[in-house]
Amino acid sequence: MADKVFIIAESVDFLDELNVPYFKIPSGEITNLPFLRRIGQKRRPVILSTGMSTLGEVEMAIEILRKAGAIELILLHCTTNYPTAPEEVNLRAMVTLKQAFGLPVGYSDHTMGFAIPVAAGGRF
Predict the structure, then answer these.
(1) Which domain holds residue 53?
(2) Residue 111 maps to which CATH number?
(3) Exposed e or buried b for every residue in 42-78, given b needs 16+ CB within 10 A?
């Protein structure tokens, strides 16, 4: 575990040295607490993908990022099937995220074509 924590810290620090304008956290890392803390400590905007996550996990990630110092948070509704069938998208989840957390919400798309992302953009 110590090796993984070191790699996480080293990777985040490397990106920080490159002066990236924001950090994007993929869905699979939303429960990686050392990763979230390290990113929050950089005091940059954070885009957080929420695929496969419960509202409780999203809430925990937001809390950790804020406590660590993240200055702005944006949530992305994401379905983690590649490609995602249109009937699996559930754009209503964007409304749920917005109501639950009061943060800006976007959509991370894995469907074929442009219809679903256009519909998602029309909602917000």
Answers:
(1) 2-123
(2) 3.20.20.70
(3) bebebbbbbbebeeeebebbbebbeebebeebebbbb
Q: Are 39 and 25 in contact (CB under 8 A)?
A: yes
Reduce the DSSP state of residue 108 to 3 states and report it.
strand
C-beta of residue 101 within 8 angstroms of C-beta of residue 66: no
Amino acid at 58: V
CA distance 88 to 82: 11
Number of domains in the chain: 1
Question: What pLDDT, in 10s, does the model give residues 13-65?
Answer: 999 999 999 999 999 999 999 999 999 999 999 999 999 999 999 999 999 99
Q: How many C-beta atoms lie closer than 10 Å to residue 100's C-beta?
A: 14
Give bridge partners of residue 74 from the DSSP assignment.
47
Please state the pTM of the whole predicted model.
Answer: 0.88
